[in-house]
């Protein structure tokens, strides 16, 4: 969301900078509403001035024992006109706010220009693809053969795009969550938080999910609550409508939550397995920083997500998303993509983004400047977040990377302490 004065004074520049990223924004409608708002505001101010002068005139006439009926009637008409204009102004401002909330964030100057995933730029790689002695099986074949994944019973219980993990599969998922949280809190300096999994409309709007992406969300039928699509939503909103002290920044949180997504635009994609579910687990990293430190923080946060994969010995690459593939609220995003042997391809396991002040403006998260600069006492913080990591997709990579010719799966050494010392998953 943009400050209205910024939007008014820089509409064409914002439109040009967004390019295809703002293709579905109704720019001319915005321009018309901005001018209507300015005109109506001016008219209302002028009429209020007339009303004040008229009130003074009525008082003067009464002091002089003269009739004030005509003047009072005129002022009543002015008051009614003010009410009509204020009602019209409220409608214009409500429509303008709704359209403003649908404008994406401006990309950082370092973001590559492009139309889609094919224009993303690889930044680095870590490790090498595993050398397997037999043709790789996909994760759902491995999991079902081992008796740790059950998609049929999940479909019976809930429907398509759900999974049941049992036995060592359920324990491996839990081990990954604990490993991720332990690493982020003990070595990377994040404060663990367990937030609500249901949030209100204001929280969804603050982080950019609403109003544009409501069809992708699960909403309660009788209450205006939404199941969270990511822990980014409740954790970022921890400081909504707050003014933080500059000395408190940066603030860093790590949170495990289940996530719920309709995947409305993905029908026909990844219909098997754990890659694209309606419900999945994720550990999320969220940071609040000073504006001048946010891009350094983005590199830091991304390295923390990478550390999980390095500890697990999983080959991955980092790509910088282009303007056409970046999320609505992001100014810059790195995707971390883990190697899946069965697909002979990389798949996203984490997105790490700097939103700059975009979410903070929507959520009114500011900080009090330690030293006032040019009359500015408070400023918006910059917010960042990244998956650290998507748990199910990490489990997929482990099953496929560490599969053995006999159908068993070796457990990465760092997870064995969470698995009761078990080194290998065998058929149950």
What global shape is seen? elongated
Give the low-confidence spans. Answer: none
User: DSSP helix count?
Assistant: 11
Q: The CATH topology of the largest domain is what?
A: BirA Bifunctional Protein, domain 2
Strand content: 15-25%
Mean pLDDT: 96
- Radius of gyration over all CA atoms, rounded: 27 Å
Helix proportion: 25-40%
User: Terminal Cα separation, in Å?
Assistant: 52 Å
State the name of the first-level CATH class of the largest domain: Alpha Beta
Number of strands: 17
Question: Superfamily at the CATH H level of the largest domain?
Answer: Bira Bifunctional Protein, Domain 2
Q: What structural category characterises the helix and strand content?
A: alpha+beta
Main sheet strand line-up: 1-10-11-12-15-9-8-4
Major β-sheet annotation: 8 strands, mixed
> What string gives the helices and strands in order?
HHHEHEHEHEEHEHEEEHEEEHEEEHEE
- The appropriate CATH architecture of the largest domain is 2-Layer Sandwich
What does this structure look like?
The chain is α+β, with helices and mostly antiparallel strands. It has 2 domains: 97 residues, Helix Hairpins, CATH 1.10.287; 309 residues, Bira Bifunctional Protein, Domain 2 (BirA Bifunctional Protein, domain 2), CATH 3.30.930. Helix content is 39%, strand content 22%. It has 11 helices and 17 strands. The strands form 5 sheets. The protein has an 8-stranded mixed beta sheet with strand order 1-10-11-12-15-9-8-4. A hairpin with a 4-residue loop joins β11 and β12. α2 runs antiparallel to α3. The radius of gyration is 27 Å and the shape is elongated. The mean pLDDT is 96.
